[in-house]
Design brief:
Order of helices and strands of chain A: HHHHHHHHHHHH
Largest sheet of chain A: none
Largest sheet of chain B: 4 strands, parallel
Shape of chain A: elongated
Helix content of chain B: 40-55%
Number of domains of chain B: 2
Strand content of chain A: under 5%
Number of domains of chain A: 1
Oligomer: heterodimer
Distance between the termini of chain B: 65 Å
Distance between the termini of chain A: 72 Å
Low-confidence stretches of chain B: 478-484, 488-493
Number of strands of chain B: 10
Strand content of chain B: 5-15%
Shape of chain B: globular
Structural class of chain B: alpha/beta
Radius of gyration of chain A: 23 Å
Low-confidence stretches of chain A: none
Strand order of the largest sheet of chain B: 2-1-3-4
Mean pLDDT of chain A: 93
Bound molecules: iron/sulfur cluster
Largest interface: A-B, 62 and 66 residues
CATH class of chain A: Mainly Alpha
Number of helices of chain A: 12
Helix content of chain A: over 70%
Number of strands of chain A: 0
């Protein structure tokens, strides 16, 4: 068991993490490259930067959105994301692993904070799952992977929480740790190929949307030629 | 989730189709709006070919790639959509609607989708899917309010626009829009309301006489003035239906003394291309450019019309390649500046009714024109009330995105599309609602009529016309006008 665990949090983790970074870098590059090409093609290259920046800012701090149209699920989602991002990155034990294997480290969360955020993330994930099941429009939009993602994200949080806070037998500890690490590996591996890719793409959404309304100048001619509609009446 | 849904009875009324079953059978297309006959054979292939051509010659691929990767199916957008709020139907969730097209894109234009299609050979585009899109994309008013809500930044108005564009290339487009556009681009009158030049001149002459009677100063509509500072393009329907708006605009120019003109070569700001086709958008925009250049005008001035203003402001530089395009401004911007500069005097006590302002989506959503009209209105309407939400986050009148021109879906527009707006108007208790947009005005008038609300719908310049003050008549008023010759003088009357 311990050798499997070592493998999962050693080479396998490194592989999955590297694939995630590469995958995310790839889609980020494609997005930026697409945006660059779009701007080159556009007839009018003036971008409404002020609006774009202000809306991106409002996305990072969605207070205005919440004030305008309060949406319970939205609040859950924001609270869920806080722990989801902060805990894995700033947990003392995780930073120690980085320190040992790669030699880099950064400040960690105080234990109590980490505990509170872990619990809140688990609770909010459950509530979001419940929301997906009972709130009508969310239920109607949801696909299988939307439920699966929430369940998958719950695994490392609950296993980590149990391992740290409960006195369990070494065998159970190792088993839970294995689940903890393997689920994290799977998550990393899947991120670039799923909707979770939004973690790197969404900051670009306002630019992309703004650019999408920038059309190339010879649309009529080009489309008519391709579709064989030259001279056809309206 | 908070919804404000219509009753079952209203639902039946709103979604009732007026089309004859034999037409639906013949066209194999069960949508509520009329469509001209088109090729019904192998529609999916036609759709995909048009989609491919559009992807090739546009920037849509970039945005479809992005949106199809980030869509989170969280339904935040549903809170913002007036259509969903009224119906509560799954089909009206903005994300559900956009997914119809995003799914076609994923399946037929991405490597993953093509491979999946090969292996599972499913999910191919069908006639029924095309029908669903044809119905759904015209249930949306393209108001883009939902885009403000989406945490992923998905712009459903853009997807609706693209969906309609592809559909139009295979002949699925509301007949009302295509007939008007045909007249505008290929007909003898070159405008969407088929107003010929003699009728235009008669109307303007009549309005000039009216204004003289009412204001005791000569106010004119200068035609074909070369080198004017502003070449004016209203929604052409204003010449038929919005006399007071036009008179208000002419009065403002009378007060400022700036040189403006209406070109008889082309005088329609309407651009249905913004609603259903980039190709049409380009063709119409080029007409505006050509007329402005013919008159050697300095700026393009668009009247009280949201979509006409947006299409000119954002797409004149696009299709006339940046450098040669004239600057574009909306008449509210012009009047506001003149008012700020003290060139217009407005009596503060003429308008006594309870007045509210409706933001046309095309003016407010991108934070273009929000505060200027309010500032002016508050200065001379004693009893001004605000409707909430407003400004950037306004609620659409329910007839946006060209749907207002489709008469056969009026019950839908006034029961579903305009439901939230009607509630908002009722709540504000306003007696006069200012809507500086030809589309909004038509929709709001039908809305208050169908919903039994006692409220008058006017343009901003209608009120300005009522309240504007002129000094004692100057000699120039009876002679040739300082800002170009009016219709009567030009005709030698
Ligand atoms: S654009 Fe307007 S009508 Fe269309 S889905 Fe969004 S909010 Fe609803
Ligand atoms: S808010 Fe955005 S991500 Fe969420 S369901 Fe609507 S479109 Fe999809």
């Amino acid at each position: 068991m311990s050798s499997i665990l070592e493998f999962a949090r050693g080479p396998l983790f490194r592989l999955c993490f590297a694939l995630m970074i590469l995958g995310l870098a790839r889609i980020l590059f494609l997005d930026v490259w697409g945006a660059y090409k779009a701007l080159r093609k556009a007839g009018d290259k003036k971008m409404p930067w002020k609006l774009i920046l202000s809306r991106t800012w409002e996305w990072i701090f969605p207070l205005k959105r919440m004030k305008n149209n309060f949406h319970f699920y939205s609040l859950l989602s924001i609270l869920f994301h806080v722990g989801l991002i902060i805990v894995p990155v700033f947990l003392f034990a995780h930073i120690q692993l980085w320190k040992i294997s790669v030699g880099i480290f950064w400040p960690s969360l105080p234990f109590n904070w980490a505990l509170i955020l872990t619990v809140s993330t688990i609770v909010f994930a459950f509530l979001m799952l419940l929301g997906r099941i009972i709130i009508k429009p969310i239920k109607e939009l949801s696909k299988g992977q939307d439920y699966l993602w929430l369940l998958l994200l719950l695994v490392p949080f609950t296993t980590g929480f149990i391992c740290v806070n409960f006195s369990i037998s070494p065998g159970t500890y190792q088993l839970l740790m294995l689940f903890h690490v393997l689920s994290a590996d799977v998550i990393f591996l899947l991120i670039p190929f799923s909707k979770i890719a939004h973690c790197v793409l969404v900051p670009l959404s306002q630019i992309i949307s703004g650019l999408a309304w920038k059309f190339p100048p010879r649309t009529d001619d080009d489309i008519c030629t391709t579709l064989n509609k030259k001279g056809a009446p309206v | 989730m908070r919804t404000n849904q219509i009753t079952d009875e209203e639902r039946l009324k709103a979604f009732k189709s007026v089309k004859k079953p034999e037409v639906i059978d013949k066209q194999k297309l069960g949508v509520r709006y009329h469509v001209e006959d088109f090729d019904v054979n192998d529609r999916p292939r036609g759709f995909l070919e048009a989609f491919a051509a559009i992807l090739k010659h546009s920037n849509y691929r970039m945005v479809l790639e992005h949106f199809s990767r980030v869509s989170a199916r969280c339904s935040h957008c549903a809170v913002a959509c007036q259509v969903y709020q009224a119906t509560g139907r799954r089909e009206d969730i903005p994300c559900y609607r956009s997914e119809l097209l995003l799914n076609v894109y994923r399946r037929h234009f991405t490597l993953g989708g093509l491979l999946k299609g090969r292996i599972a050979s499913g999910d191919y585009l069908t006639d029924e899917k095309i029908r669903e899109m044809a119905e759904s994309f015209w249930n949306c008013t393209a108001c883009r309010r939902c885009a403000l809500e989406c945490p992923m930044g998905i712009d459903h108005g853009l997807i609706t626009h693209l969906g309609r564009y592809i559909l139009s290339e295979i002949g699925i487009v509301p007949r009302a829009l295509v007939v008007s556009t045909r007249e505008q681009l290929e007909g003898p009158t070159r405008n969407t309301s088929a107003v010929p030049v003699p009728a235009l001149k008669d109307t303007l002459e009549f309005l000039e006489d009216d204004m003289f009677e009412e204001k005791s100063v000569k106010i004119s509509f200068p035609l074909d003035v070369q080198n004017a500072d502003y070449v004016f393009f209203p929604a052409v329907s204003d010449f038929l239906m919005e006399a007071e708006t036009l008179m208000g605009i002419a009065a403002v120019f009378r007060a400022t003394g700036d040189k403006w003109t209406i070109g008889t070569g082309y005088y329609d700001g309407i651009n249905y291309g913004l609603f259903y086709s980039d190709r049409i958008l380009e063709r119409v925009i080029k007409n505006i450019d050509v007329e402005t250049k013919r008159l050697n005008g300095k700026s393009v001035l668009i009247g009280e019309c949201g979509h006409a203003s947006r299409s000119a402001k954002y797409f004149l530089p696009t299709f006339c390649c940046d450098k040669t395009a004239s600057p574009v401004l909306n008449i509210i911007e012009y009047t506001y500046k003149a008012w700020k500069d003290g060139k217009i005097k407005i009596k503060p006590d003429v308008i006594t009714e309870k007045v509210a302002y409706h933001d046309p989506c095309n003016l407010a959503r991108q934070r273009w024109i929000i505060n200027q009209p309010r500032e002016m209105l508050k200065s001379f309407c004693k009893n001004y009330v605000e409707m909430t939400p407003s400004g950037e986050n306004n609620i659409c009148c329910g007839g946006g995105g060209g749907t207002v021109s489709i008469d056969e879906i009026r019950p839908y527009r006034t029961t579903v599309g305009g439901k939230l707006k009607a509630d908002q108007i009722r709540k504000s208790g306003c007696e006069v609602l200012v809507a500086p947009c030809a589309n909004c005005k038509k929709q709001l008038r039908e809305l208050v009529e169908d919903q039994g609300i006692n409220c008058q719908i006017v343009g901003l310049h209608d009120l300005i016309y009522k309240a504007i003050e002129f000094d004692v008549p100057q000699p120039a008023d009876t002679e040739e006008l300082s800002n170009g010759k009016g219709v009567a003088q030009k005709e030698g009357k």
